[in-house]
Structure formats: structure tokens, C-alpha cells
Amino acid sequence: MEKLPDLSSLTPEAKDALIERLWEELQNQRKSIEGLKSRPKKTSQNSSKPPSKGFKANKAKKKGGERREASVGRAGGGRKLHANPNQRVSAHLQCCPSCHESIPLTSQHLHSRYDKIELPPIAPVVTRVERYCGECLTCGYQSVATVPPELAAGSPFGETIERFIAYLRYGHAISYQRLQQLCKEVFNLSISEGAIANLLSRVKTRLEKPLGEIQTRLQQSAVICSDETSARVEGRTEWEWVFQNEDVCLHVICPSRGANVIYAVLGEHTPATWVSDMFSAQRCHPGQQWQVCLAHQLRDTQYAIDAGDEVFAPAMKQLFLDALKLHKRRDQLAVSTRYQYRLAIQRRLRKLLSLDPSQTDGQRLKKRYETILDNLFLFLEDDSIPPTNNSSEQAIRMSALFRKVTNGFRSEWGKELFAAVRSVVNTGQRQGLSALQSIEAALSAQGSLFLPS
Questions:
Q1: In terms of Cα–Cα distance, which of 241, 318, 302, 308 is closest to 277?
Q2: How far is it, in rounded angstroms, from Cα 4 to Cα 19?
Q3: Which of 75, 133, 228, 324 is most deeply buried (CB count within 10 A of its CB)?
Q4: Cβ-contact 183, 174 below 8 angstroms
């Protein structure tokens, strides 16, 4: 009912019917409100809600007591001495502070040894290039002297500065203004924000080769894990996708969150196993088989437990935990033992699916697992398959941090450069390289993050 009718024109019977109808609607709304109030709050423990958005209760103050002894000087404590110190200073006694008699070196022994560490003043190394030209006295041809590629004319800022700026910008989410300030105050390098933008634009061009190599390796992978998160580009919401495994990691930022992105990245490649959450686009993957992320399922079962399910969700959560424990112990167990454990897990799963939960969330989970029965425990059959998609979430963690610090990207090339650098850094990490080493390798003459086979 959108508008109350004219009550003066209604008969007593019509008014009674109207009152009964409104009363029934009121009771239904009260039930709905009570149902919403009784629902448990979603936290990072029972949903995909990030910890930063969850409720954090105040921690209880620790009771006062005796302070433990400081670790300095105790056995096994303190910083290890540097293997190759730049200089050594030996302090010997010259005379006795009590009677002022001289003390020979033979009467002295080592009392203590420690390091004092300092940073030297940092200043850029400036190379002045003077190119000469001349005219051949024989043929009259005029020419200009050549210089090494790293000293070519153009931007005054060399490759080491390019690597360092890219590392600070996309490894630590430092803004252009603070980059300019940091370079000036710490490194004694004057560089404008416009010069930083031009420098990063050149970096983007040079990362095209290693980025293509990463995508080529991804298109040959048997196992691919994927996830996505939001990204702000020129005031619009787009999506950052990550495709990764133990060897490579590729980031792609685009307007679509649909399955078409997956096929655009992989082309005609069909991986043996796809690992992801249960987002609809991820379910349209091209993999031959699909491993559902158990970390998500553990949180969902916890939510059902918080909501009041005592029949299905608690037992299902314990089954997931037991399967994960078995996966961690896989190297310590014989093949036959693992096989028996795997059969036991499957038997327990079938038994749980025969339960009849009365709570709504328990019923929902049971219906879900009946449809993805074959996608829960593939990792118990193949060690190369991870049981969770946590590695994908870890790969996009820096992206979420960057989004919060910078509030997104102001240009298309900015988002493409960010995706390229994160692809390089996360792939390099999988090859045993640090973030800075990964950027250096990608921007080197070889332009490769992978050792030659």
C-alpha cells in the first residue's frame, strides 16, 4: 500500500480489514528486523571482510609486574658482529686510573667487542659528458663522437635513479611530492615531480619485454591461482586481477570483473588446475579442474557457527582443518598412509552431507558443498595444488595498501605501470629476488627475471 485510502469513505467492515492487513504487515516487518538484529556481525574471522574494516575491541591492560632482564649481554642476544668492518678501533690502557702507573700491553686482555654503524653522507655521482665533433681533413665528412648507451643524451637521470624511483613509488607507495622531498633531503638530488613522471614513463616502456615473458610463462602453467580486488582509475572503479603460481605472478587492471578477462590473459591456454574463491567469474575458468579456496570456506563455516548452526558447520569446519593438517604433514607420511587418510576424509564428507541442519546458514552451506563436492580436496591428490588461494590475496595486498595511500590512479598509463611493476616484483620474489633486485633485473640489458635454463 503506497497511499492510505480516504477513511471517511470506508465502511466499518472495510476499516477492520484494513487494520488487520496493516497489523499483519507490521508483524512481518518486526520479524524481519528481529532476524536482522540476531544475525552475527561479519568480521575478518567469519567472512572476507578485511581486518581493517572489522570491529576491534579494546585490549585489556596487562597487569603490572617485574620487568624481565634486558637481553643485551646475555648469551645468544644482541646483534651479530659484521664479518668485514670498514675500520677497527682498538682502545688500550695507557696508565692506571688509580695510581697512574703505565700498564704494558702484555698485561691487557680483550674486555669486549662491538660494532658502531653509521651511514656515510649520500650524494649523487655526476658525470659530465663532453662530445666533440670534427671534420675529416681528407673527405670533409663531419661526425660526432659516440658515447656509451648509458651516457646517451636525453634525461640527465640514469638507470640507477630510474630503478630506485620505481622501487620507492610502487614498493612503498610514496607520492610524487614525498619522492621529490626524499630525493632532495636524503640523497641531495634535485628532481621535479614532472621529471619523476617522465622517468616512470620510460620505465613503463622498458618493462614491456619482461612483462611479456611473465605472461608467456603463465600461459604455459599447469596450476594457476587467481583473485581480484577493486582499483580506482580516474575516479572510476575498475578491477585488478592477479594470476599467479609458484613461478610467476601477473597483475592486470581493467574495467571488467567478468570471465572475459581470464580468457583475454590466458588466450587458448587450458591449465590443469584452477585455484580461486567462488566468485561467479572465477567459476567460469578454463581449467580442467577447480580447487576451491578452503580459507574462504573456513570463514564461511565460522559465520554459520556464529549464526547458530550446531549440526553441519562445526563438523564441516573440523573436516577442513583436518584436511589442511594432513596437507602440512604430507612429506612425513608414506604414500599408502596418505591414501588411507584421503579416503577417510572423503567418507567423512559424504557422511556430513547426509546431515539435515535446521539453521538457514547450515542449510545454505550443505547445498553449496553438494554442488562442489569434487572441488574441495584436490590438493590431497596432487601436491602441486595449494589448498587455499592465500598466495593470490598476498600478491594483491600491496595493491590494497597503495589504493588507500594514493586513492587510486589518475591516468591509464599509471595503472598499467603499477600492474607491470607489481608483476615484476612478485615474480622476482618467486625467483628468490628482493623487490629492488627484481626491478633491477627487469630493467637490465637482458630484461629477464629468470635464470637461463
A1: 241
A2: 11
A3: 228
A4: no
